């Protein structure tokens, strides 16, 4: 009979009970980047693989559905939007497990690069759908309304991120002032992810999807659950001020 580090045998009922009570996806924030690990492992460690499965399933569903139809001015809108969302998930996953100052600096730079490209894609998707709508009513469906709110939050989130990290002294007065809003930027980032997922789910109920593309609601919901579970299980509560 082997003893654990606490002196309790590993097959002792108390030890077995604690293992039985272990959450299936681990405790929040369990995954931490080790000093000798390359930062790109953060994209797959812990439940990141669950989130990766979800976002790639979602992208595949969108791309397969869109490319199964004749190309039109509308075509780039969902392709660009799903690609931007894929980049945003990568941006979150690569930064979550960082702990040391060097890891955080490297992670933030990569996070920023992913997010910058995603914002460009999101804005392009917005411009394309607005041009495609022409004189037809805009922002009348749940997807359209959620989409507009989401685009606004995306731009605000990006602006705050740039200010707090790159321009804290010039805009906020000091580096410490920038650091004080980090937790709020993280909070709003996770809220934004929920908003983006709701927008994608609402897209399955649009007339165009129901009548032409036929992207299944159940498939999108499975992908969304995987994304939220994978990202959510890696949230470090202390980084949110909890």
Summarize the structure.
By secondary structure, the chain is an all-alpha fold.
Protein described:
The protein is built from ten helices and no strands. With 242 residues, it is mainly alpha-helical. Helix content is 67%, strand content 0%. The protein is globular and about 50 Å long. The N terminus is likely disordered. It has one domain: Four Helix Bundle (Hemerythrin (Met), subunit A) (Up-down Bundle), CATH 1.20.120.1770. It is a multi-pass membrane protein. This is Cytochrome b561 domain-containing protein. Keywords: Electron transport, Heme, Iron, Membrane, Metal-binding, Transmembrane, Transmembrane helix, Transport. It is found in: Membrane.
Number of helices, where a helix is a run of at least 4 consecutive DSSP H or I residues: 10
Distance between the termini: 39 Å
According to CATH, the fold-level topology is Four Helix Bundle (Hemerythrin (Met), subunit A)
CATH architecture: Up-down Bundle
Q: How large, in whole angstroms, is the Cα Rg? A: 21 Å
Strand element count: 0
Q: pLDDT under 50 segments (min length 5)?
A: 1-19
In the CATH scheme, the class would be Mainly Alpha
Name the helicity range.
Answer: 55-70%
Fraction in beta strands: under 5%
